[in-house]
Amino acid sequence: MLEMFDGRLAMPFHTLNPCHILGHVNTHRALHKSRLQPVLAIPPSSILLHTDESGKFPDSKKGSGLRGRDSSDSLLSHENTVGIIGGISVNSALNFLKKLVQVSSKEGKDCFPFVLCSDPVLNKELLSHERNSCPSPRRHNEKSPSDHSAIAENLQNKRVFLEKSGVQCIVMPCHILHSWHDEVSKGCSVPLLHMGECVARELKEAKLKPLEAGSPLRIGLLASNATLAAGFYQEKLQSEGFEVVLPDRATMEHTIIPAIEALDRNDMEGAQNLLRIALQVLLVRAVNTVILASDEMRDVLPQDDPLLKKCIDPLEALARSTIKWAQAAEKGI
Q1: What residue spans carry the region label Disordered (predicted)?
Q2: How many domains in the chain?
Q3: 59 falls within a domain
Q4: What is the pLDDT of residue 212?
């Protein structure tokens, strides 16, 4: 019997309605102190795993079917089961699930089975990594970790767990996690989708034309210092022939970093104004669109803001690619 764990309780999955509502989920993150209340149509054969403060998964009850691939449990029999490794916040993982459900619903299909791993220890390590990468005077004296091997090992352990649980594809709906994509995917027995590749592929398929005659196709990239430094978005976009336009140092220091700090102070209006300036600075440099690859900035602007129409959310590209994979796997393609 499958069970759902959220760190506090376990319940048999057959008691859950396929349209079960997940709500009131605390994020373990100072940036998002409000509670997220998305309505998610969760497949009856999906499970969510939330580790304890030590980073360990709760002990599953006897017969839960999570010990290996030899189980006859219904979850493991699905050829389109997806494993999801949560990243810098619970909000990001739930936002990704919401996008999966929304896209599937638009196509008149049910969401595929999935296994979601959520880890507060990893959340904190990633948040610390991102924060220490910002050259902010307020964090100048904070110690920056020099060895991120613990994060890589944590991710590899989750990947192995998901493989043993029977998933046939793995995704990481968190930007900074892709800094370790190569290490995590090494030796992986199932596809591990890359968010940067998903975005670059969709942009290529869109057959965009340069805004200035004779100029290359320019794509703006707005992200945290840690994501920009990792360089995986730049690499994936350039491999598809795009010129990547990054925020200059002045934009990072005077708009993007202060916008993140405004969020820390719950100054939403200040964060919105600063983000608008950062986006406009990129757009005036003749970019076709701006990739908004930032967990902090994703929900800053209201959905009807005109500037958002010129931006791409990589999580949506990853969701569409995941659904395409699941549909192909279900058909045996």
Answers
A1: 51-73
A2: 1
A3: no
A4: 87
